[in-house]
Amino acid sequence: MSRLARAFLYSLTALVVGCGEFIVDDQDFSDNRRTLDITNDNAEAYLWSSYQSIFSPLYFARLNEMLDARDFKGVQVGGYTCPGGGSAVVNFPNASGVRYEESDAFSINYTACFNDAGAQLNGEVSGKYKETEGYNKTFATDLTVAQCITNLELDEKIDAGRYELIDDQASNLIFDKQGARLFVRYMEQDPQDDQLAIEKRVEELSLDQIAVVVNRSTTDFDSSFEEDGARIFVVEDGVQEQIDCAYYEREIDLDLQDLIVDIDDNTHELSGKLALKNSMGREVGVSSRQDRVYSLSGDFTSVLSKGNFREDHSIKDFEWRIEYGPTSQSTWALSFSAELTNQNDGVIFEAFSSTGSPLRGAFDLSVPNLGILSVSGKDDDGVAMNVLNSAGVTFAIQSDGDINGDGRVDLTAPNFNVAWNDFLDRNFVRPPVENIIR
Known about the structure:
By secondary structure, the chain is mainly β. 10% of the residues lie in helices and 48% in strands. It is built from 4 helices and 23 strands. A 14-stranded antiparallel beta sheet has the order 3-4-5-6-14-15-16-17-18-19-20-21-22-23. It has a 4-stranded mixed beta sheet with strand order 7-11-12-13, with no helix packed on it. It has a 3-stranded antiparallel beta sheet with strand order 8-9-10, with no helix packed on it. The radius of gyration is 27 Å and the shape is elongated.
């Protein structure tokens, strides 16, 4: 079980939703080493700190969009003009479209660079490729059939010049093994009878032949993407294997060197080393140009400033996963967990924060519209916010652990709603102490 999965089991995630309320069960935390004393008065502030120190800077920095020259409109080395103004100096080992391998290193230095998410970036990000998987080592989102076959040769899946290429387009493709022969049949529906299929083309292979068999897309002749209807097979020893040409996964060691992320009136300064994995294709189903997944793990520091307010966060055992849906849906879903040490006005506390249910949102919104974020402190102290929509959130506070002795933490204030704008501006409700025995 991953650390993220374990964190979910022990975080504030057992929700009972009904009558406009939700209860959070945190009984597994009764013997933890965390020192944060959550009260009705400070609970919202600590959730705000968790949201702003972890979610906001990493979501808006878009670390997964600074990994190769393609992310910078093909600029390999030199200056780059950012989408919303400002600039960056990039240094990548390969030009756009060239394959990446283990140990390839890169760096980006930002100067007042406004990215597509509306954040202003300053500082440096550097990285080194640890591993790449899949045939798509250029991380292309417009991979052609010809490029796919070239990648198969480069990865020695097939030997150049020693295979048969069978290339056509039909509504169906059948591999028919008969004794020592394999027949590749391209089939079409009979125009006279929709219950029958007719053979458009047949190719015969011996079992010792190696072949690449292509069934082209009807909508995009050159595309190798299955989402467009293309299917590509490698045949060896009479057995066909469908190839996912678009799939890739890359693992990169990232080094954040005082990366400053300004969002609205909040300034976030990030430093630390993170492991990043980024994939497209197999992990999320049929290869798609839009479906992208990336995860981050490691330790880092997050310094948060808002006017005269400042907090220093040390974030340990951090795990983060975000999935971007198809462009047509323009959605994302994000989960994370982390141990936090916070220093504010000389007071240091330790806490744990996680998404009890993934935060979800849309690209055109600056806040999530679904999900649960929680913070747990000493003993059974805890607070959680349930994201209702893009307008507001609901809070549940348990600051005194198990009050009635039934083995579950109890609410110490009624659940209450807060508008997103008020929460982000630190206009907190701070409900009075009210032990609610259930």
